[in-house]
Design brief:
This protein is α+β, with helices and mostly antiparallel strands and 215 residues long. It is built from four helices and eleven strands; from the N terminus they run E-E-H-E-E-H-E-E-E-E-E-H-E-E-H. Strands 1, 2, 3, 4, 5, 6, 7, 8, 9, 10 and 11 form an eleven-stranded mixed beta sheet that branches. The two termini are 29 Å apart.
Length: 215
């Protein structure tokens, strides 16, 4: 990834497309991550000395790509983090899953995260996980669905869809596909109120595979 795909930027926020398989934040692997990339971009663009502030207000799993929102000031970061916590920000995904699903459904489960294995599973004493989905198209024994995430649990979409017998195509952790297939889950749209101007904002971006299965 040599160049950031910036969907929007002002003095308070920056909206970008995260490519699949790039970390959101650095970890022990020292692999490329979005926070470092964006900080470098801001430092170079504005010729800023010293450290550059960038607020991380939500996350995407490493293999998942799509629209991401970052804050450029601490005030914006605080307000956006609270909006995410209160589910005031609408997060829409598309996923390609194995088999045929209902025309639409709401999934409510309780998830617990295993810190040792970095996985989540359904557990009666876990945290509530809610998502809504609707079927966009059914083709070649795959269902293309739109997912509206109501809570932000670890690996939530992947676990909940696998639990109903429709794992995401390419999900090696919760599905049945061989290594080498890219997970077909993408954050396609964010809709939110600007933390400073209070203007309603909406940004979207779709992966190439979406167009193959929507036809």
């Amino acid at each position: 990834m040599n160049k950031l795909n910036i969907l929007y930027e002002d003095n308070h926020i920056i909206v970008v497309e995260k490519e699949p398989n790039i970390l959101v934040q650095s970890d022990s692997t020292n692999d490329l991550d979005m926070v470092t990339l964006i900080k470098k971009y801001l430092k170079d663009k504005y010729n800023k000395p010293g450290n550059v502030y960038l607020g991380l207000v939500h996350r995407l799993d490493r293999p998942v790509g799509g629209v991401m929102l970052f804050a450029k000031t601490s005030k914006a970061a605080s307000r956006l983090s609270e909006d995410f916590r209160l589910n005031k920000i609408k997060r829409t995904y598309v996923a390609l899953v194995h088999g045929k699903v209902k025309e639409s459904d709401t999934l409510v489960d309780y998830l617990i995260k295993d810190e040792k294995t970095n996985t989540s599973r359904i557990f009666k004493d876990g945290k509530e996980a809610i998502l809504e989905y609707k079927l966009l198209n059914y083709k070649d024994n795959f269902s293309l669905i739109e997912v509206n995430l109501k809570t932000g649990r670890h690996h939530q979409i992947r676990v909940q869809l696998s639990n109903i017998g429709n794992p995401i195509y390419g999900d090696q952790r919760y599905g049945k596909d061989k290594i080498g297939i890219q997970i077909h889950l993408y954050s396609v749209e964010l809709e939110f109120i600007h933390p400073v101007t209070k203007q309603k904002m909406k940004f979207n971006n779709y992966p190439d595979w979406y167009y193959k299965y929507i036809k």
